[in-house]
């Protein structure tokens, strides 16, 4: 099999410039050369670190939040679902933190949605013996019972389309091949009089020429499906990610280009070396919240990670852990890692937490 970059170049030569979501989809998920498919990118030795890998408090608090929703639902038999579980650390921490809640684990079937065979095997090792019913899926399974779901840094890995505002419409940003420079480059693709997707609802002419609008259709589909299931069968979910809420940025209806690529903890060119670096885009939480509400679910105001974790009692949990730490160094490490999650200069503000719950559930922390 030829290198992914060579195959993409060939595809462009044959079919013309690629839509960016098609390029990103291949760069991350191509079965042979996709970034996630062949490696475990998480951790200090990898390319990036996520909240559950930084502090156990993250997963513990998410688990407790889900238990509170489950109890409000009347403690039914439930599917506990995680989208993009990475190394399985978040699920492991959630299961450990909730193992003493009467009947909770008995009521659960655990489902992990993971496209990467490499990460699946890491998850299998992490979660061996942690729950008697754990199943893996490539895509979101059909659920016939209430669902409790978490997704941390999953939505930001879903492929996006980018549109550039023109005076009377939008042109799609595509990926072409620059023969002289021997590299991929952005080129203008098809022009549309209006955005070819219903969300976000931005009129042609509303933005300064050259502004970029991003659309993640995959995130929209998944959220619509989940919200409809939560509305009809009951349930609750938390999506945590880098992202924005449009009302926080009233001057910037278009928000702009948020694509970034990271390799070994350093920024990297988005188009260079597809499959060799992680590519992400910030999540448009306003659009996802609108879609979930339209599907019948309740979405309270999106919180920052700082507010969510602190209001969930993260500091109290930290105090408990500090008491049991074996050395001052360990205490320092525990405090430092929690601080990293909540500090507004680090992950506290950049990361947002969106809750989607069935109309009968009062979302703990978010409401009331
Ligand atoms: N939630 C984990 C890992 C985040 S990295 C954590 O917080 O540590 C993104 C995860 O989503 C990886 O497990 C990746 O393989 C998975 N993933 C990305 N796109 C996916 C898709 N389209 N379908 C299923 N899994 C996907």
Total beta strands: 16
> Judging from the principal axes of the Cα atoms, what is the shape?
globular
Determine the mean pLDDT. 95
Sheet of most strands: 8 strands, mixed
Distance between the termini: 56 Å
Q: Low-confidence stretches at least 5 residues in length (pLDDT < 50)? A: none
Order of helices and strands: HEHHHEHHEHEEEEEEHEEEEEHEHHHE
The secondary-structure class comes to alpha/beta
Bound molecules: S-adenosyl-L-homocysteine
Strand content: 15-25%
- Continuous helix count: 12
What share of residues is helical? 25-40%
Key traits:
globular; eight-stranded mixed beta sheet; 12 helices; 368 residues; alpha/beta; binds S-adenosyl-L-homocysteine
